[in-house]
Amino acid sequence: MIYIHVPFCHRKCTYCAFFSKVESGEWKVERYVDALIEEMERRKGEQAHAIQTVYFGGGTPSILPLGQLSRIVEGLRRCFDLSQVQEVTLEANPEDLTHDYLRGLASLRFFNRLSIGIQSLDDDMLRLLNRRHSAQQAVDAVENAQAAGFHNISVDFIYGLPVGHRGQAPFPGGGTGASPLSKGVTHVSAYALTVEEGTALSVQVKRGRVVLPDEEEVVRQYHELRLRLMDAGFEQYEVSNYARAGYRSRHNSRYWNRTPYLGLGPGAHSFSFFESGSTSVAHVEKRRWNNPDGTVGEETLTDKDAFNEIVMTALRTTDGLALSVVPEGQRERLHRMMQPYIDCGWIIPTDNRYVPTAEGLLHADGIAASLFVA
User: Fold this and answer.
1) Long-range contacts: 303-308, Cβ < 8 Å, 24+?
2) pLDDT tens for residues 281-314?
3) Smallest Cα–Cα separation from 276: which of 286, 267, 287, 263?
4) CB environment 94-131: b (16+ within 10 A), e (fewer)
5) Beta bridge partners of 178
6) Which pLDDT score, from 0 to 100, does residue 289 have?
7) Within its chain, how far is the Cα of 354 from the centroid?
């Protein structure tokens, strides 16, 4: 699997802590694509097996002109074995998905999945979050994508939004303009709003300009969101992800299963053979990411680190933690420490795995942290 990080945005969302740059000239985009293709050439030997999924994330990949996207696609086809690719995702913002852009995207015959960052269907909230699109543009983007031949469409939403605003649920009843999305969407990623240090939102919260709901209200919204999505025909398969039958994100599921992957572009992380990771330096001004070999170092995970990562990712999914991936020497300890969560109904034990309930998924990170090997 391959992840490509596109670091450009039209503007910075108030809550965003990802590495991105406000796009300020076509020449920077061209230099980025030049460097990205050079990195593909340099690192093509790191993927010995045929690629099954490719994911363009960001930033805002849909900011790239079709000509530059075409160059990237050509580079991928030249450098990697794509004969077994099953899923290719492009993250996009609604305002970019015009009829012409979508038709051009379809003509590349490469992308078969769109992940559209809607976040809210309340125009006041979208302005507060510094989003460029309106609620109607979000609905139009989904319909435009379908008309262009895209039928695997994921949308992102945020709940736990500032007090006094609606828009938390993607399919609420009555008058929000949200209902058309339930017909055209195959996958929903729904995240609780988090306040990251260094973001505009963190400053607004500290100054009292934005008031966030308390934990009890966020939990209520989580349960309401989950029920609404299930009623609309979606299945929860990870704490923040819901899909119609057959439309789980294959790429993200591979992350959670700890499948090795290659990250390309500034700020992209790679993972290889359950042991090491590397990160491309987060800088787009330098043609070669400011480092001749394209990385800023490698980290070798200890057995303890690997175990902790397995526990963390597995307990966030409805598949749960399989005993087969737990070293035999850890199983008795794990069961003993898991017992309180079994007793309170957050974890259901089976013959070969520990499966979180809906309430357990809500507390997955805390449960996992308590099971870590120090």
Assistant:
1) 303/327, 304/373, 304/374, 306/274, 306/275, 307/373, 308/368, 308/372, 308/373
2) 444 433 344 454 555 556 677 778 888 888 999 9
3) 263
4) bbbbeeebbebbeeeebbbbbbbbbbbbbbebbebbeb
5) none
6) 46
7) 24
Q: Using the Cα atoms of residue 167, residue 217, residue 346 and residue 192 in order, give the sign of their dihedral.
A: positive
Name residues of the chain where pLDDT drops below 70.
12-27, 48, 163-182, 272-299
Q: Which residue's structure tokens are 């020497």?
A: 329
Name the DSSP letter for residue 262. E
Q: Which helix (H) or strand (E) holds 56?
A: strand 53-58
What integer pLDDT is reported at residue 147 of this predicted model?
94
Residue ranges of domains in the chain, CATH in brackets: 2-255 (3.30.750.200), 302-374 (1.10.10.920)
Q: CA–CA separation, 307 vs 190, rounded Å?
A: 27
**Which pair of structure tokens corresponds to residue 153?**
């469409």
Q: Name the DSSP letter for residue 15.
A: T
Are 312 and 348 a contacting pair, CB within 8 Å?
A: no
311 near 372, Cβ under 8 Å?
yes
| DSSP SS3 for 51 | coil
Q: Provide the sign of the torsion angle of the four alpha carbons 50, 262, 240, 228, taken in this order.
A: negative
The number of beta carbons lying within 10 Å of the beta carbon of residue 302 is 10
The SS3 assignment for 16 reads coil
pLDDT value at position 177? 36
Cα-based distances in Å from 366 to 212, 219, 311: 21, 15, 11
φ, ψ of residue 116 to 5 degrees: the values are -100, 125
Question: Dihedral of CA 43/272/49/84: which sign?
Answer: negative
pTM of the model: 0.86
Closest by alpha carbon to 93, among 128, 141, 147, 159? 141
Closest CA to 39 of 77, 70, 76: 76
In this structure, what token pair is assigned to residue 298? 């490698």
Contact 167, 120 (CB under 8 A): yes
253-271 in b/e burial notation, b at 16+ Cβ within 10 A? Answer: bbbbebebbbbbbbbbebb
